[in-house]
Amino acid sequence: MVRCLVLATLLALLVASPVAAEAEEVEHFDTLEAMTAGSDAVVLGRIDAVAPGRIFSGCGYSAAALRIERVLAGRVPVGAFVLTVEYFGFCGALPALGREIPAERGVFFLRNKAEDRRLFGGPVSALETEAERPFWRTVIGAGTVVERGDRAHVPDSTNAEWLGAWEGKPFGAFVEAVAGPAPREPASPAGVDPGVLPVGLVVAVAAVLLAVGVVAARRRRRTIDP
Length: 226
Hints:
This protein has 226 residues and is α+β, with helices and mostly antiparallel strands. It is built from six helices and seven strands, in the order ααββββααβββαα. It has a five-stranded mixed beta barrel with strand order 1-2-3-5-4. Strand 1 (41-56) and strand 2 form a beta hairpin. The longest helix is centred in the last third of the chain and has 26 residues, at 199-224. The chain is globular, with a radius of gyration of 24 Å. The relative contact order is 0.14.
């Protein structure tokens, strides 16, 4: 019953304000492999600092600076060493580092908010979607496992009860379990479609083909002319 109420509240927020709403619990993953594959990026790192972030309809976010140590799955923007991960305050006190936001080194399963907007925000313009590109969230509330000593600690296993089995296990084993089943995709420069050749390269190739054609035509003319 409680889960249904939480889901209903999140969906109501999503309809009322697509940018501000968190769609975390709308997504569901039955296994570690599924959550890894379903994330836009899974990174090993640590949150260095937290500051008040964006505010929508009077409800605010904490903006956490997540310093990347290693990308375990998915991809992040080229050259990115720090990601801004937003934690929703549910219109109350903002989440704080060491309280709702983990201060320990950990594995973070992330959704990029541009993809979040595309998937759950309804009809939106490309400009509105791209405005969310610098921001991230955890794919679900339980989307973080941290290191305590050399052991894994699961701060929250809500809607991912299977994650609790990793509590107290070697943290390194958890990291490798995440990195193994979902090979990383090479990142592409922001805004560049990896399926489209850059304009400069197209022009260069066209120039080479034209030169080859001119040379071939001249050779044919010399062969034909007496």
